[in-house]
């Protein structure tokens, strides 16, 4: 089992309202899950907990046998860099760094050494011409930025890839291209996926589709 959740509860400091109450949830190695729910359902909070950016108020999140809540803040940062890739909604690339340097930065935080050859191979496999590898991210098109974002998330060969609403700002062509590129890379690396979106049309090809509201007991009316 790659990821296991048991009796997870979370509320923000100073607020007694429970945002998440998940008795049990798990994810196997290489498994792909599409997680959906309306705005305000707690999707972003859930992802931050899985990534170790937030700590549960109760219960446990265990990944690769490691209880994340047992790690100190700096340890969680290192764990996340080494084992979890993240593709953000707005990609969050460092605008003045080249695509290759954005990837180098992620590799540095993951404790990797020289990744130039791996970064070049990954970007090329994603269809980004080599002459664009050294171009500042701010000067790349949206489609080119999304390739860099995928490569950055995968450079440390993470066991888990988390993708958070990455297509909301994309037109239909770039959205479909993003999904195709993502699927190819997941298959090649046997990486598990948690794909979060409100757009159910993006769930095509992902075998496990769940609503956060179905697994989260917080706020339910009996």
From TrEMBL:
Keywords: ATP-binding, Nucleotide-binding, Transport. Gene3D superfamilies: P-loop containing nucleotide triphosphate hydrolases (3.40.50.300). CDD domains: ABC_MJ0796_LolCDE_FtsE. It holds the Pfam family ABC_tran. One of its GO terms (cellular component) is plasma membrane. Residues 3-221 form the ABC transporter domain. It comes from the Bacteria. GO terms for molecular function: ATP binding; ATP hydrolysis activity; transmembrane transporter activity. This is ABC transporter ATP-binding protein.
């Amino acid at each position: 089992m790659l990821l296991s959740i048991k009796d997870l509860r979370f509320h923000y400091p100073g607020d007694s309202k429970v945002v998440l109450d998940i008795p049990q949830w798990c994810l196997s190695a290489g498994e792909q899950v599409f997680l959906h729910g309306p705005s305000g359902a707690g999707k972003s909070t859930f992802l931050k907990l899985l990534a170790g950016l937030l700590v549960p108020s109760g219960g446990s999140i265990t990944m690769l046998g490691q209880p994340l809540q047992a790690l100190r803040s700096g340890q969680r940062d290192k764990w996340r860099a080494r084992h979890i890739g993240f593709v953000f909604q707005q990609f969050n690339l460092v605008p003045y760094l080249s695509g290759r340097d954005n990837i180098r930065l992620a590799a540095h935080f993951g404790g990797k050494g020289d990744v130039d050859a791996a970064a070049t191979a990954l970007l090329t496999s994603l269809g980004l011409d080599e002459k664009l590898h050294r171009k500042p991210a701010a000067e790349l098109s949206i489609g080119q930025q999304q390739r860099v974002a995928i490569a950055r998330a995968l450079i440390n060969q993470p066991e888990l890839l988390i993708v958070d609403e990455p297509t909301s700002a994309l037109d239909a062509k770039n959205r479909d291209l993003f999904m195709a590129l993502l699927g190819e890379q997941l298959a090649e690396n046997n990486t598990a996926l948690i794909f979060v979106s409100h757009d159910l049309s993006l769930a095509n090809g992902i075998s496990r589709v769940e609503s956060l509201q179905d697994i989260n007991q917080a706020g339910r009316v009996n």
